[in-house]
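Progress report, Aim 2. The chain analyzed during this reporting quarter is listed below.
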Amino acid sequence: MNLRPYQQQLINEIRGQYQLGHKSVLAVLPTGGGKTVCFSHIAEQAAKRGNRVCVLVHRAELLDQASRSMLVHHGLIAAGRSVDLSHAVQIASVQTLARRLRLMPRDFFQLLVVDEAHHTTAGTWAKVLEYFNTARLLGVTATPIRCDGRGLGENYESMVLGPSAKWLTEQGFLADAKVLAPPGIQTKGLRKRMGDFDMKQAEGLLQEGQAMGDCLTHYRQHLDGQTAIAFCCSVAHAEAVAGLFMANGISAASIDGKMDAVRRRGLLDSLGRGEIKVLTSCSLIGEGVDVPSVGGCILLRPTQSTALHLQMIGRCLRPSPGKDKAVVLDHVGNTLRLGHHLEEREWTLDGEQKRKREKITSVKVCPKCFAATNAQASRCEECGHQFAAESRRELTTVAGTLQELRVEAARERNEKKQRKREQGQAQSIEQLIELGRNRGYKNPVGWARRVMAGRGKRN
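Predicted structure tokens for the chain:
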């Protein structure tokens, strides 16, 4: 297996964490950076040393992808398949493995690899990890936070970070992308459910007025003839968007979890070959699906989750022959809320800290071409539009004497409060005498006695 230098470095750092005594390690690498390649190499090397390894995935597409990447002979634990535990490496559907735990002793595996590790805290995962609690744990993900913003520190002891999406893009390992944020819907009035927007309400707004027509118009303007994935609010919404494209002569299809795995695989293959130009989905292909030829993403699903935001955009960032620049059409303002996908992010096992004040917008949208660019930019990189300079507020001049009196009065009030607080904290005569000396009183002993006498009268 030919590893890129940064992949080899990430693997070395993972091994270093185990050597330091950590039992569970989380490895972070942006979408398209080669997480599957890295954990496949680790699994192969572990098997060669006589260890049994289990790679855990949560969807059939991820199981197939991991199986294709694994160079060592391996078994598959999945619904409808007989279990063959003679192979040192197993790739398992976590749901199926949870139902078949009785077939294996608790110490059967020496290493568990969790693909898309931001799901680790879910109930089924927890059941499997608890059962094989003697094994080392390796989680891999592009977004080391749960959809609700919580971190993964309860499952992992340490974290190693690969290069950022910005660095991978500059080095040519990820495709560059043009991010456009044309008018879509106003999310300000959307209800919240379980930390994210109410998808039922969002679905209604996105199927009204211009929202549906805009996604078709901007596809034709920026992606005409290229393949794209549209992320929608519900299965019904995905079907409606696919119907819109088909009604206008653009080959499209909707994919959802109720379809059997063969049908889903067929649709993804058709997208990869360009037979389907637009594939719409509710939540099925927001992560882990590898179709490098996809030219763009159409965001029709508003979210407040940084993890989901980055996972959706990541579907079009894999380089592919003929792909000059990917296109992200953000009709729901996710980029304005959650930032540009190339922003440097400080990942920690603690997750996202809730800020007491509103986050400063990191991007702004060109009113001429709708390109999302750095908030500090004075000129749009796409069309050259010059952003109008923000008007500076003139400071109102206040009479100096009056202003100074207000400041002094406030300062005096604060000092009096502080002096009373210090005096109240001094409980003994000795503490009061020391306080009087620190304040420079001429007779600190007499002052302390008067304070104590006054306290006696009040009591």
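The chain has three domains: 5-163, 169-352, 420-459. The longest helix spans residues 400-425. These observations will guide the mutagenesis work planned for the next reporting period.
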